[in-house]
Amino acid sequence: MKTKIYKSLVLAATCLFAGCADLEEKPVGLLAPESLFNSEKDVETAIFGAYGWIASERLYGRQFVTSIMLRGDMVDIGDRGTPAERQQVNDFNMDDNNGMVRVFWPYWYQVVSAANAAIAGAETLELDETVSNQLIAEARFVRAFSYYHLVRVFGDIPYIDYFITDPEAVKDISKTSAEDVYKGILEDLAFAKQYLPDTQPSDVRSRPTKGTAASYLASVNLTLEDYPKAYEEAKWVIDNKDRFGYELEADYQNLFRADMADNLKEHIFAIDFLGQQNGGGGANDDIMPPMTGIRGADNLGWSVCVPSMAVYNTWDNGDYRKQVSFEDEALVGGVLVPYTEFQNTQRPHIAKYRRFPGNSNSDGRYSDNNYAAMRYAEVLLIAAEAATEINNGPTAEAVALVNSIRERARNAAGQMNNFPEDVQSGMDKDSFVNLVLEERRIELSFEYKRWYDIKRRKLGETVFKGANSLEPHSNFDASRDYLMPLPSIELDVNPNLAPQNPGY
C-alpha cells in the first residue's frame, strides 16, 4: 500500500501491513475497515503486524532502545566515531532534527495504527463476543504499550484511538495532554486485563495476558505516583503468579540466553526476534548485540553503548549479576585479554545481549534474543516501592520482596554466594526507596528502564551533576531534558503539533 503523504504521521496512520517506500504515489481514497477485514484471522494479522513494527531496527532492534539507554546514567558512548545523532542524545545537546527521533517517532505510530485497525476490524465483524473482546483487548494492550513509551519520552503527543479512514484528516491532528494520554493508557490496560486470557497458546510471552496487563497497570500507576493502585495491581500479579506461570528464574544468566528465551517463566512480556530472519523496513533486525559488543574482539561488536568505569565499579565483585551483565575480558585473536587491552574502548562492555545471541550472524546481528519488556522481578520491585510509599516506610512484605530478588542473585550458576546480603528491617522511608531504586538499577541494568526511573523520580540533577555522578553532564537542564524534542519535520508539516517541547 502506497500513498502520497502530507507528513510522516500520515504514513504511520495509513500504512498498516506493508511498507510505504514511495511517498509520491497517487493518493488513496477513503479506507474502510470492512474492506480490509473479512475474518478473525485478518484482525490477528493486523495485531501481529504491530508486533512486527516493535521488533524492528527502528524500535526494539536499535534506534528507540538505544536512545533511552544512552539517555540514562548507565551507558556512555564508547566509540566516538559513532554518528553524531547518538552523541547528541547521550550528551544532552539534542536538537529537533535529531535523526534517531525522526526515525522512531513514525514507527511507534505505525504500531498504534495497526492496533487501531485491528480494533476497528474486530468491531465490524460479526464475531463471537468472547473472541472479539479478546482480539480487541490484545490490540488495546499494544496501543497502550506504545503510548506508554511515547508519553514518557515526549510528554504531550497526538493521541489517536480510532482507525483513520481519510488520510486528509491527519492534517488536523493536534497534541493531547500527557494527563489525557495516561487516561487512555489506563483505560486500554484495564480493558486488556478484563478480556485477555490467563495464558497465550504455547505459553508464549511475546503476546499479552491478564497478568501482562496488570503488570503494566502497576508500572503506569507507579509512574503517576498513584502508589495504592500500583501496589494493588502488582500484588494481584504476585498473588496469582501460579495462575499465570510467573516465577524468578533460578539462574540470572538464563534470562539473557537466546536459546532459552522461549521457556523463561520470569518473562511477563517480551519482544521476540527471530534469528537470521529480516524483512523490509528493518523488520526483525536486532542490532543491539553489536551495538553493545566489543570492537575488535573475536565475538565482533561496535563498542557504541558502553558503560563508564564508574558504572562498572558500582557493582560489588561478589554480585553474580556483575558477571552476567559485563564483559570485562574477551578473546582477541584467540587470546583472552582484559578490558584494558581492548582495541577500541578500554572499558568493560555490556554482556547481556552479545554473549548468547543464539542464531545470529558473526557480530550478533539478526539474533534470537527475546527482550524482556517486563519481568516478574520488576513487578516485585514495583510492589516493594509502592508499599513503602503507602506506609511511609518499608513493610515486612516490602523487605521480603527485595530479599527474594537478592536471594536469586546469590545463585551463581548453581553455586550459592554470600552476596548480596539480605536487606535488614528498620530503614526509614527515603533510605528504603533509594535502596529499591538502586536494586532496580542493578537488577534491570541495560534493560531500558533506568532513564524512566530517573525521569519519574526527577533524579537528573543528582545523577548527572551530583558528587557521585556515574556519567556527569554539567549541561543537564531539568526544564528541558526530561523530554525529547518533537521531530521538526512533523511540526513543519503540521503546525497543530506546536508548541515544541521547552528548550528546543
Describe this structure in words.
- The chain is 44% helix and 6% strand.
- The chain is mainly alpha-helical.
- Among the domains are: 1-196 and 491-504, Serine Threonine Protein Phosphatase 5, Tetratricopeptide repeat (Alpha Horseshoe), CATH 1.25.40.390; 289-364, no CATH class.
- The strands form five sheets. It has a two-stranded antiparallel sheet with strand order 1-3. Strands 2-8 form a two-stranded antiparallel ribbon. Strands 4-7 form a two-stranded antiparallel ribbon.
- The two termini are 35 Å apart.
- The model is unreliable at 1-30 (pLDDT under 50).
Category from helices, strands and their pairing: mainly alpha
DSSP E strands, number: 10
Which bin fits the share of residues in helices? 40-55%
Tally the helices: 20
Spatial separation of the terminal alpha carbons: 35 Å
Largest sheet: 2 strands, antiparallel
**Averaged pLDDT:** 92
CATH architecture of the domain at 1-196 and 491-504: Alpha Horseshoe
Order of helices and strands: HHHHEHHHHHHHEHEHHEEEEEHHEEHHHH
CA-based gyration radius: 22 Å
Please state how the strands of the largest beta sheet are arranged side by side: 1-3
CATH topology of the domain at 1-196 and 491-504, anyone?
Answer: Serine Threonine Protein Phosphatase 5, Tetratricopeptide repeat
**Percent in strands:** 5-15%
Low-confidence stretches: 1-30
CATH class of the domain at 1-196 and 491-504: Mainly Alpha
Shape: globular
